[in-house]
Amino acid sequence: MVPVSYYVVLSALLFGLGVIGFLFKRNIITMFMAIELMLNAVNLAFIAFSRALGQLQGQVFVFFVIVVAAAEAAVGLAIVILIARNRKSLNIERVDLLKL
Amino acid sequence: MTMLLFFALAAIAVAGAVSLILQRHPIHSALSLIVVMVALAGLYLLLGAEFISAVQIIVYAGAIMVLFVFVIMLLNAGEEERTNFSRMAAYVGLPLAAVLAAGLVYWTAHEGTGAAAPMQRPATRPLAMLLFQDYLFPFELTSILILVAILGAVVLARREEGRE
Q1: pLDDT score of A68
Q2: CA neighbor of B100 nearest in space, from A13, A32, A72
Q3: Alpha helices in chain B (DSSP H)
Q4: Contacting residues of A for B11, CB less than 8 Å apart
Q5: Does A23 touch chain B (CB under 8 A)?
Q6: Which of A32, A38, B3, B157 is most buried, judged by most C-beta within 10 A?
């Protein structure tokens, strides 16, 4: 039997990799994918704890997280298309209107 | 056996995540992310969450990632440009991310231990009971959320009339 902590450590690793990807990538779409990776890491922790505590609420929340991720991907990718159309580039450093 | 499967799937997931970061081409990153998601679906099966595992494959690896790949191809996204990326990210971001990951790993490794309780039956039926009875209202709200998201996406991505 795999201890829950192993799953949670894996979840933490994936979340950390997602943070690193978000900070280091310069492509908007790739940064978006890093966010999805972080959401997946959280889902793994939810399911591991749901299993450990013998309660199904965790799986319900994972379901909701997936739904919200789908909505977020739809709206976010629409915004990405808009940015690409206006800036003619996917580089995040070109989107600096709010930068001091 | 379970241990072996866990470590194999965990290795695949972490390798996919590292590959996501290291690839310079967005389409390669997207394919790496699909690998991570399939590995996670296997882990969910291992944890006795069959329904979530299927949803992970269908919705995440199927719908969401197809959307990503579609947008990448639509925008004809090429190699990521090499820029002199901000020093802030190098000097603050990397240590911060490392500290975050190390802290989470340390904390979780020292806090909760104890083997996972064996799940008695396939949990899909109780999950449906929970979803459609106790959580019926949030469930219906998510459908409104999806509807609003679709409308927002359509409105945002629409090409304005008369400008082109």
Answers
A1: 93
A2: A13
A3: 2-22, 26-46, 50-55, 65-75, 87-88, 94-110, 124-129, 136-157
A4: none
A5: yes
A6: A32
Task: Scan residues 59-78 of A and list those with Cβ closer than 8 Å to B.
Answer: 59-60, 62-64, 66-75, 77-78
Locate the domains of chain B by residue range.
1-79, 122-164
Cβ B163 vs Cβ A86: under 8 Å: no
Range of the domain at A77: 27-92
> pTM to 2 decimals?
0.82
Query: What's the pLDDT score for residue A76?
Result: 92
Which residues of chain A are under the pLDDT cut of 70?
none
All residues of chain B having their beta carbon less than 8 Å from the beta carbon of residue A80 are 71, 75
Structural domain contains residue A99: no
Inspect the interface and report whether the beta carbons of A47 and B47 lie closer than 8 Å. Answer: yes
Q: How far apart are CA B100 and CA B104, in angstroms?
A: 6
In a domain? residue A97 = no
CATH of the domain at A65: 1.10.287.3510
B1-79 fold: Four Helix Bundle (Hemerythrin (Met), subunit A) (1.20.120)
Contacts of B29 in chain A (CB under 8 A): 25, 29-30, 33
Count of other CB atoms within 10 angstroms of residue A28? 25
Which stretches of chain B score pLDDT less than 50?
A: 164
pLDDT of residue B53: 92
Predicted pLDDT at A97? 82
For B83-125, the pLDDT digits (tens) are: 555 666 677 777 887 888 888 888 777 765 555 555 556 678 8
pLDDT at position B42, please? Answer: 93
The candidate with the shortest Cα–Cα distance to A43, out of A64, A27, A24, is A64
